[in-house]
């Protein structure tokens, strides 16, 4: 058997990499392929060759003017994921933690321009970070857990494009 050939759970043969098509898609993403080129009127990200990217010196913002899925989420105030920090540790290290989370966002945005932090809200009990994509929430959780050894409770909604991570650590 060829290494690249495999069978999915239904017993049908499939090609490598094509069997992970998710049943749940981002409701803010276009249902059909957009006309290329296009650009977001709010953030300036461009859609070209079926992919969103930041405009560079060689890429121009021309074509159809649209709102990208991330800006649609931000406008609707409908996050794709939440990271909730609880415990006595985060208030003492709030600045360091926010720097870490923003660094993760910046690294992620280089390759995935639709992955953004929407808002950060903190009160005495918890800090809630809302993001446009559940994958960014997962990466922020991984960075927090790696750096500070907290406990994470990950809740991924299988019916919607949403993830909530409750991260906890006491001092």
From TrEMBL:
UniProt biased composition (Basic and acidic residues): 1-11
Region ranges (Disordered): 1-22
Matches recorded under NCBIfam families: lxa_BCAM0308
Protein name according to UniProt: Conserved protein
Organism: Tepidicaulis marinus
